[in-house]
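Working notes for the structural subgroup meeting. M.R. asked for a predicted model of this chain before we commit to crystallization trials. I am recording the input and output together here so anyone reviewing the notebook later can reproduce the run.

Input as submitted:
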Amino acid sequence: MRNRACTRPSAACFEGGEKVVPLMPTSRTSALRGEGTPSVGASVLKCESPGEAEGMRPGVWDKIKDHPCYSEEAHHHYARMHVAVAPACNIQCNYCNRKYDCSNESRPGVTSRKLTPEQAVKKVMVVASRIPQLTVVGVAGPGDSLASPGTTFETFRLLKERVPDVKLCLSTNGLALPDFVDDICRYNIDHVTITINMIDPVVGARIYPWIFWNRRRLTGTDAACVLHERQMQGLEMLTERGVLTKINSVLIPGINDKHLIEVNRAVKQRGAFLHNIMPLISDPSHGTYFGLHGPRGPTSRELRTVQEACSGGLKLMRHCRQCRADAVGLLDEDRGAEFSLESIEQMDIGYDRNIRQEYQFRTETELMAQREAKREVPALTKVRKATGALKVNIAVATKGRGRVNGHFGNISELKIFEVSASGAHFVGYRRVELYCQGGYGDDERLVRIIRAINDCHAIFVAKIGICPRKELADAGIESVEQYAGEIVEVAARSWFNDYSSRVAGGGSLRKHCDETHDQAKDV
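Returned structure, recorded in token form:
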């Protein structure tokens, strides 16, 4: 059974929703977003950081350069850790079902165990001694970090005292945020994520059944109005204090998909640094209201359409993994199962700040070498007339560190890049099933893998077998092995130069099927 290629889909048209006028900024937030204006004639020099190239103030780049959630580059090299010390929540979301003894789901709000502050700090010290690239520790649930302020800030106090070389961050729905900005600054928590799904209470009433505020339970548009006002107030207060803020928004088809452009605009006005638009996880087995009653999760095209519609506004995050409340490790290699409470009781802490600094120095040295290699790759000075403004998608099998180093049979997700004469631009992740099972390839899974990447012209791998190579070729997808071990962006541009030459020489552009493209899921 083969997946035949047919007509490639055109870009879906985004239609704007009803105009919503949000609360206007009340301060000089636009000047405090971390954006600057490069001097006239400035160019990307070898000593220039990526942050400077993007117009960030140097202090902002220093905050994000080793934060895997705030920097797409950093997430290949640096690890994060969530400690599940905040079980309570002050709102109900229709897409959420917190589970406290769950090891088989990978989504926000689930954890294997709730921790006390002391347990959390011991776990962090054990992990830091075994994962020296750990740079960030956050409280992200399983409830809301500011609905359990006592345990949350006691955890941060102990971390600041005992593990001073990690960045601290927290995630919140924003309802209680204005009440705790002073505490956030007191403990040097300089990264905060706020989940903001709406600025229109009518939209919000369809997402949030209730909130608990000022000792009262509010419902409907009354609840959504209070939540919106508190979120905007908290965001402005953080911006005034110089705290970098990431906004998470869940894309819910039919509810806020057309509304998120207004959300993007409103949070940018108030000084947010980054906007992460995530797909709704709608699975009946999770027991959420949306999972049981709808709506469905968005397709890859729907997600990307909204992201592209917001691309002229606040900078977007595209590498989110929608992590558990007890996630540990690199974003694409969670190691939480290694560090259960029972197992860490048997481990020596062994926390050595000097060893960690040495490892991270080597990592930064490697990153600098990779940046330099990317700059030295010759770009196409002009696209040949035969190819026009050619852009193609590629899939990359990688085990991390920004290189082509994944075996086709052993990957559970692929990175998707859009490649053109201007370079390789990260689009998102696609989850796929493991092709190899017990040493043998699974033909049915291969069909589904091909369907998942049928909008891609090539797949870059460190190794691939003869059978999957042939099936991919029959579907019009080129298997590329010659760049094994190379930096992804360097390999992609080199391949694209060759590919565009083939097209200019009379080779045909492969075409794709609307139906299969819609089934692909970026994550």
